Amino acid sequence: MTFHGIGERLPTLVPDGPAHLGTVPPFWAFAGRAFGGFSSAAALTGAAAFAPSGSVALAARISFVSPTLVGPFRIEATDVRLGRSSSAVNVRLTQDGQTRVTLASWFVRPDLLPAPEPTPPPRADPSACPGTWRDTKNAFDSAFERRTIHFPATSDAFALHGPRVELWIRRSGGPPPDAVSRQADDLMLFDAHLAETVIEGLHADRTRSFSIDLSVTWAGGPWIRSATPEGADDGGDAWRRLTTVGSAAGRIGTSGGTLTDVSGSTIATATQLVAVGPPRSDEGGRKR
């Protein structure tokens, strides 16, 4: 299976007996460590290979056990329970025999995804919203295009901005051709911004702060229809509205987020636990 949307920057998972092999390229890393959204997306794509053909993810829970590094990785199933309408698939991503990421997921037929919760369409049209410095924070951030609705003007302004941010965001390389690849993209979008709301809001040391986990649940709606052979692919590269709210008590923070389409229909919701480092003493470090 292949990650799509940014060409050669996204690797192919190659079958290797009961497992799948891949590689983390430098593009998706900072200081030798993989972006957590990339390792999450790799794990979900690997899990989909063990699920029945045509299934989509209903829910996924990712635990970041230890940092994933640039270089080869292996994805193997730890538990697979296949059913007629739903299947449980648990996998782990390893490097050098060490577990880096675990993923517990449920896959279902696309028609079994719950109906999306409607929300009021946003008043701000993407074309009327300004761009943001956030597209250049890390090299891999250029994989997505952002427009600000409610977002700090600089990284330093997070502490004064408040715990809630809102962005229009879409992939830069066009739509992935299938639903699971789009769901892998959703993991990237959430992981790029959920922990950030907490870490930057507290002005915490980025090099000593990190995501502990990521839990995502998907809904049905227009996005899934456009990602099936029967549907017109008219929504795969559309703007999505990402809203996140974070809070922290001591050294552990929590963040929640929602992805909606331009009509206001919910695509997915997510929560994340964050380990918060000490207050930042300089500007040399960055998150993962």
Structural summary, described in words:
Pfam families: 4HBT_3. With 288 residues, this protein is an alpha+beta fold. It has a single domain (7-275), classed as Porin. Helix content is 16%, strand content 37%. Strands 1, 2, 5, 6, 7, 8, 9, 10, 11, 12, 13, 14 and 15 form a 13-stranded antiparallel beta sheet that branches. A two-stranded antiparallel ribbon has the order 3-4. A hairpin with a 4-residue loop joins strand 6 and strand 7 (86-95). The longest helix has 23 residues, at 179-201. It is globular.
Set out the fold topology.
Layout: E1 14-16, E2 19-24, E3 29-30, E4 33-34, H1 36-48, E5 56-64, E6 71-81, E7 86-95, E8 98-108, E9 144-150, H2 158-161, E10 164-171, H3 179-201, E11 210-211, E12 213-218, H4 222-226, E13 240-249, E14 252-260, E15 266-275
Antiparallel strand pairs: 1-2, 2-6, 3-4, 5-8, 5-12, 6-7, 7-8, 9-10, 10-13, 11-15, 12-15, 13-14, 14-15
Helix pairs in contact: 1-3
In short:
Helices cover 16% and strands 37% of the residues.
Annotation, overall tally of beta strands? 15
User: What kind of oligomer do you see?
Assistant: single chain
Order of helices and strands: EEEEHEEEEEHEHEEHEEE
CATH topology heading: Porin
What structural class do you assign from the helix and strand content?
alpha+beta
Number of helices: 4
Mean pLDDT: 85
Q: Strand percentage, roughly?
A: 35-45%
CATH architecture: Beta Barrel
| CATH domain class | Mainly Beta
State the shape. globular
Give the terminus-to-terminus CA distance: 26 Å
Give helix % range. Answer: 10-25%
Tally of structural domains: 1
| Rg value | 18 Å
